[in-house]
């Protein structure tokens, strides 16, 4: 069977990363959460107090950033490393979520992210999830999936996930953050969130994880023949 590139795009908190990770496990492919890369860049910018209207400061900051995914032996998942520091937990913080859409809309940040993501896919055998993976990063990917889910279900899923780490978080905060990010991610100038014309739609509002995985595996197997 030939090795292919699989892309999963969609709005925030549709379960893209969960499905992408499961698919990669089943196929023995590399899984890349491209959102984690933009989150790590945002964390660095916040820590360094980078003014994102200052192109020189952005350029300099990007030159100081090394991003890397490393396997976590305890969880079996790959964690995001920023300049050799494991930032997997920190990048899920609400502060990062509040600014990541602004930072990831910057032209130079996009060029930086897209170039690294394209390099990761050179050997194929990769599942990557994000917003512009099937349109900008891998427009020739063999399988493109556009994931959707009912907005209320997305808020609830996100709430359950974040409440475990932060019991002070409210549904309202999460709803506002998801709406704001969806709007900004879809309306930015460079590489906005778009459904690729040749993508397959997957609405997982009423699907179990197993059901959505079975569907995606069926599509992948056909493309791998
Ligand atoms: O997938 P996520 O919610 O962790 O992504 C965080 C943010 O990163 C998202 O709101 C927009 C940005 N992003 C992007 O612009 N392009 C991608 N390919 C992935 C994420």
Ordered list of secondary-structure elements with their pairings:
Elements: E1 5-10, H1 16-27, E2 30-33, H2 34-47, H3 55-63, E3 67-71, E4 78-82, E5 85-86, H4 94-104, H5 107-120, E6 126-130, H6 133-137, E7 143-148, H7 151-163, H8 171-187, E8 200-203, H9 209-224
Parallel strand pairs: 1-6, 1-7, 2-6, 7-8
Antiparallel strand pairs: 3-4, 4-5
Helix pairs in contact: 1-9, 2-4, 4-8, 7-8
The chain binds 2'-deoxycytidine-5'-monophosphate.
The name of the CATH architecture is 3-Layer(aba) Sandwich
Helix content: 40-55%
Number of domains: 1
CATH class: Alpha Beta
Helical stretch count? 9
Topology, number of strands: 8
Measured between the Cα atoms of the first and last residue, the distance is 5 Å
The biggest beta sheet reads: 5 strands, parallel
Bound molecules: 2'-deoxycytidine-5'-monophosphate
* Relative strand content: 15-25%
Mean pLDDT level: 96
Q: Examine the coordinates and then state which fold CATH places here, giving the name of the CATH topology.
A: Rossmann fold
Given the C-alpha coordinates, what overall shape results?
globular
Which structural class do you get from the secondary structure elements?
alpha/beta
Q: Within the largest sheet, what's the order of strands?
A: 2-6-1-7-8
Q: What is the CA-based Rg, rounded?
A: 17 Å
Corresponding CATH superfamily = P-loop containing nucleotide triphosphate hydrolases
Unreliable runs, pLDDT <50, ≥5 residues? Answer: none
* H-E string: EHEHHEEEHHEHEHHEH
């Amino acid at each position: 069977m030939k090795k292919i590139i699989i892309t999963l795009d969609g709005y925030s908190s549709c379960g893209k990363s969960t499905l992408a990770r499961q698919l990669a496990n089943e196929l023995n492919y590399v899984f890349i959460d491209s959102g984690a890369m933009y989150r790590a860049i945002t964390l660095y910018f916040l820590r360094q107090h980078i003014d994102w209207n200052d192109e020189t400061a952005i350029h300099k900051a990007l030159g100081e950033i090394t991003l890397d995914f490393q396997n976590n032996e305890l969880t079996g998942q790959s964690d995001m490393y920023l300049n050799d520091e494991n930032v997997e937990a920190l990048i899920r913080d609400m502060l990062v979520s509040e600014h990541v859409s602004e930072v990831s809309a910057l032209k130079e940040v996009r060029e930086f992210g897209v170039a690294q993501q394209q390099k990761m896919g050179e050997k194929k055998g990769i599942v990557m999830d994000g917003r512009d993976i099937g349109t900008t990063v891998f427009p020739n990917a063999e399988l493109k999936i556009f994931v959707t889910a009912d907005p209320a279900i997305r808020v609830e899923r996100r709430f359950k996930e974040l409440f475990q780490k932060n019991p002070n978080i409210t549904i309202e905060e999460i709803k506002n953050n998801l709406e704001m990010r969806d709007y900004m991610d879809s309306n930015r100038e460079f590489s906005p969130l778009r459904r690729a014309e040749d993508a397959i739609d997957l609405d997982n509002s009423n699907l179990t994880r197993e059901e959505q995985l079975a569907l995606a595996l069926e599509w992948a197997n056909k493309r791998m023949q």
